[in-house]
Amino acid sequence: METAKVVTPHHEEKNVFENGRFSRSDFLQQLDRIVSSKHFRNSKRYPSFLKFVVEQTLAGKTEALKERTLGVDVFARPSHYDTNDDPIVRVTAGEVRKRIAQYYQDPGHEEELRIDLPLGSYVPHFLPAAHAIQIAEHDHLKDQSGELIGTTPALEHEMVGPETIALAARQSVAGMGRWRKTFLSGLFLLLVAAVTLAGILLRSRLRDQGIKYFWRPIIASGTPALIVIGVHSLDERGQDEPAKTHAGSMQDGHENMLAAMVRSDMVPVSDIVSYSEITDLLTRRNHVYRTKGSADTTFEDLRQGPVILIGGLDNVWTKRLVAPLRYSFFASTQLESEIRDSKDPFHVWKFDNMQLVSGDSRDYAIVASYFDSTIGQHVLVAAGIGKAGTQAAAEFVTSDQDLKSWLTQEKVPQGKNVELVLSTEILDGEPGPPHVVASSIW
User: What residues are paired with 366 via a beta bridge?
Assistant: First the structure.
């Protein structure tokens, strides 16, 4: 039976509880920290999966961590289900790996124990904190250098004759050899330190490279960003009104007090989740922002500074500002909505509004970062057709890993406007990782 393992700096595997260095409770506490973080707490599927594989591994039950078994035990699939037709375990594991990586990339987690899910396996690995690995490597090099350091014995000046000369010569050669080994050991340590420093500087330079490209125009603007979030407006009968602004009617004096009281503007919970991810990013970069519902936002509001649009068909300003771009939203009927490609009519991404909320399907979203000449401001869009699409879009624009991967793949030059179409697979009503299916760069 396979037991829990800890990976050490020199690629040795030791029992995670050996010598009392770590305990089950240590890793269970670390598991709680991870699943309580922003990367996991808004999902049910990902924390459940990670908790199950960690707890089973700590209990020594790794033989149960197979795709079909996980599908049955974690996701309540029937025992005979087809893993090729239903990839929920593989998709979830891939997303968990990404979110774990994002967790440890955030500042403040360097001193924590590591829980990793290696590619090609559902058995997690447990590792010491990053600083413990560095100390172990330093001690290992120190031990090596200590073995090589020697002292040259003093010569006895009373001894004379050929034997003394020969002995002195042998001792001198041995001393030179030891001095050379000491010098090389010291040089090696200097090289290790230089490489480590260069690696730290390189990681610092590459960190947030994708975030900086998409968000630099907003962060560097020096003015507060306006976040415009989509709303669903209900009339006095509780019926959903078309996305529009109330600001114009209020300014014109056409809306009376009764109409204002009976009208209800509702924000979907999924958009609140997306909003929290975006505001968290702005807060960590010390950038001021203000928030308004799309129905209460005026054209003059949009001209005051950079704009962030959350939500697609429920956000009137998303529909208006995105309409001139290559990809835009279109609601053909109440039953079906879509994203259209203005340059290729055969490119249409449809979303069925009547599908089951808890079922498996696919949603689509538009992500854009561009300068809008109409309002004279930079605009960032994170908008889905359905709620899963908006969540996937917000995840994409706040994930340095996703942004950097796409920028590198497409070799996007600095300073370009970009618009992307994303797809996300919905499993049991929850969005999976976002994937870029189309893009426009200008």
Answer: 383, 421
d(CA 159, CA 254): 116
Q: At what angle do helices 88-105 and 400-410 cross, to 10 degrees?
A: 100
CA angle 88, 428, 48 (to 5 degrees): 70
DSSP letter for 148, please. H
Closest Cα partner for 270 from 387, 398, 430?
Answer: 387
Contact in structure between 410 and 416 (CB atoms under 8 Å): no
- CA distances for 423 relative to 46, 345, 434, angstroms: 19, 18, 6
Backbone angles phi, psi at 373, to 5 degrees: -70, -20
* Alpha helical stretches, state H, 59-161: 67-73, 88-105, 130-148
Q: Tell me the sheet residues that pair with 431.
A: 426
Query: What angle in degrees, to the nearest 10, is found between the helix axes of 387-397 and 400-410?
Result: 80
CA distance 105 to 110: 8
Q: Where are the alpha helices (DSSP H) in 17-129?
A: 24-35, 45-58, 67-73, 88-105
Query: For 106-138, what is each residue's pLDDT tens digit?
Result: 888 888 999 999 988 999 998 887 644 454 444
| pLDDT tens digit sequence for 166-186 | 554 555 555 556 667 777 777
Q: Which residues contact 22 (CB under 8 A, 6 or more apart)?
A: 6, 16, 113, 126, 128
Q: What is the pTM of this model?
A: 0.57
A 10 A CB-CB count for 303 gives 14
User: What type of residue sits at position 193?
Assistant: A
Sheet holding 125-127, edge to edge: 13-15, 5-7, 125-127, 114-116
